Amino acid sequence: MSNCCTSSGRCCPFSGGCPKALPDKTDGTILLVGNPNVGKSALFSRLTGVHAISSNYPGTTIGFTEGFFRRDESVWRIIDVPGAYTLDPTNEAEEVARRIVDEGADLVIIALDATALERNLYMALQVLETGATAVVALNMADEARHQGICVDVESLSRELGVPVVPTVAVTGSGISEMVEKLSEASKSTFSPMASDERWKTIGNIVAKCQTATCRRHTLRDRLEDISVHPLWGGLLGVFVVTGSFFVIRQIGEGIIGMILDPLYSGLVVPVLNSLSGMLGPGTFIHQIVIGSLIDGAIDPEQSFGLLSTGLYVPIVMVLPYVVAFYAVLSLLEDVGYLPRLAILFDALLHRLGLHGFAIIPNLLGLGCNVPGILATRVLESARERFIAATLISVAVPCAGLQAMIVGVLGPYGGGYVLAVYASMFVTWVVLGRLLHKLLPGYSPELVVEIPPYRAPSFRDLGLKLWFRVKGFLVEAIPLVLAGVLLVNLMYYVGAVDALSRFLEPVFTGFLGLPASAAGPIFLGLLRKDVAVGMLAPLGLSPEQLVVAMVVLSMTFPCIATFAVFWKELGFRKVLMSLGLMMLCALIAGKTVMVLMSLVG
């Protein structure tokens, strides 16, 4: 087995060698299958290094990863199949897993959790029943030993009829041996079985191959029990979520304030100033490339040119929060806490047509809606992703918007700030209930394996973070630039001003706001926090400011959120969501106006 070098020049240990460029032709395909939380991602990264491609399975929104590794003189394509408990699909991920397995491959690596052998063997037998040529990676062998579980590997291999290799993917232990065993991969003699017969077979296998000894309850065991306790688990969940939000906020703001903003101001702005002088302010090309000059200077947040706002917003303002979000999410995921957090919030969110994992994107949306929308990928069905993304866009204010709400309304009293937040929370609950009742389909029950707490591998965390951030850069930046270009063209031809004038009757007659408020609220599609700042000098009463901010918060999302929303859900669903946003904004704004007048 030979090694290969990554783009950093270092060799990939245990990988069997990764080609420096993705090959046009391979010598075979390997599937990596298994239940969720059995360490498939760590096995995959050990085999492929950093050379991998993430994509959606055709016709679905379920992602899978494929990469390449070299074994002897052959280059093999390896597919990390979505984690599934069964090939009798109960959700979209399991449907994709079944379809990939049915398509067949030259070899299959079945990853099993050595600490939960009985449960893992169900899908393993289903795969073997297809006649696949397979090798079994008995992963987390170290954790099994720590828990007093002993698995007779030779006996298990005889029972399954395929090679079995104990592995610890986090440390790389056993990976080389597993790669060598690929040449001995074989087909099992199992024929298709009914479910009851399969469970009986599993019971016989476990009885022959596994023994367990008594062990004392450890501190980790007690922490695992506390994590799902209705009271103490809830308090721990609040602490973890609050701490995660704080860390994400601090990392994001730190990267912006200490690194990206100074770099942009010192390196990019001088170039843009020179280019602005060459193009001439006021010309069409200047408006498109540089944007408008604010008080005679380029403002990267408000100028709205392709090279100013078009690059500043996604790279300087959004990317740091995306990096921070994915770093914290990956850490909680690899430690094993995310499934526990999902269980704690499942009862509440199920009433909104979601399951517990939806708490993650909703909470992250409080920092920035962009990573919040991206995080809806953890949800299983398209219906859930639409509900969650719509609720985030309508009723989850980002950190910048929250800062402006508090800054503008705070001097008038905390009651006005509370009124804005209460309006958004009520809308979040009511809209979620309505969507749950009206949208076709159903939300799957939360069926999630709770893995033991385990120490994360920082190597695997780094690879996972790189893949996710790279995906954001490739997918989001072109869409943001396209959105900036479109809005810029609308401004140049006067479409934005015409639309603002057209909407004046709605603002004055229906919402009780002066006509001058129409422009700033409509401009919220560019930057909502900037739009709030434009409301401040209009001389609105505190009651009018509350109405205006409620309407602004719930209407068209900022351009970066819109671009990611479009990419994640598609144009038709974006239009549906936009319609819901406008309707919610008008109803909530009118309701707040009436309540304010009654209280006043």
Fill in the keyword field for this structure.
Rossmann fold, 600 residues, eight-stranded mixed beta sheet, 12 strands, single chain, two-stranded antiparallel ribbon, alpha/beta
Give your account of this protein's structure.
This protein is α/β, with parallel strands linked by helices and 600 residues long. Among the domains are: 28-215, P-loop containing nucleotide triphosphate hydrolases (Rossmann fold), CATH 3.40.50; 339-450 and 494-599, no CATH class. It is 59% helix and 10% strand. The chain contains 24 helices and 12 strands. The protein has helices at 40-48, 92-103, 117-129, 141-146, 153-160, 175-181, 195-209, 219-227, 232-279, 284-289, 309-335, 338-350, 359-364, 369-374, 382-395, 399-409, 414-438, 458-492, 495-510, 518-522, 528-535, 542-554, 559-569, 571-599; strands spanning 28-34, 52-56, 63-71, 74-80, 107-113, 133-139, 149-151, 164-166, 186-187, 210-212, 293-294, 297-298. The strands form 3 sheets. Strands 1, 2, 3, 4, 5, 6, 8 and 9 form an 8-stranded mixed sheet that branches. A two-stranded antiparallel ribbon has the order 7-10. The chain has a two-stranded antiparallel sheet with strand order 11-12. The relative contact order is 0.08. Mean pLDDT is 81; it is low at 1-21.
